Amino acid sequence: MNNFEYHNPVRVVFGKGTIARIAELIDPSEKILLLYGGGSIKKNGVYNQVMAALKGRDVREFGGIEPNPRYETCMKAVEVVKRDGVDFLLSVGGGSVLDGAKFIAAAARCKADDPWDILTGQYTPKTAVPLGAILTLPATGSEMNCFAVISRDSTGEKLAFGNPCVYPVFSILDPETTYTLPAKQLRNGLVDAFVHVMEQYATYSVNTPLQDRQAEAVVRTLIEIAPDVLEKKNDYDSRANFMWTATHALNGIISCGVVEDWTTHMIGHELTAFFGLDHAETLAIVLPAVWQHQFDRKKEKLAQLARRVWHVVEGDVNAQARAAIDKTVSFFHSVGMPTRLGDYHITESRLTPVVERFRQRGTVLGEHQAVKADQIAEILSLCL
Question: Which residue among 160, 177, 194 closes a domain?
Answer without folding.
Answer: 177
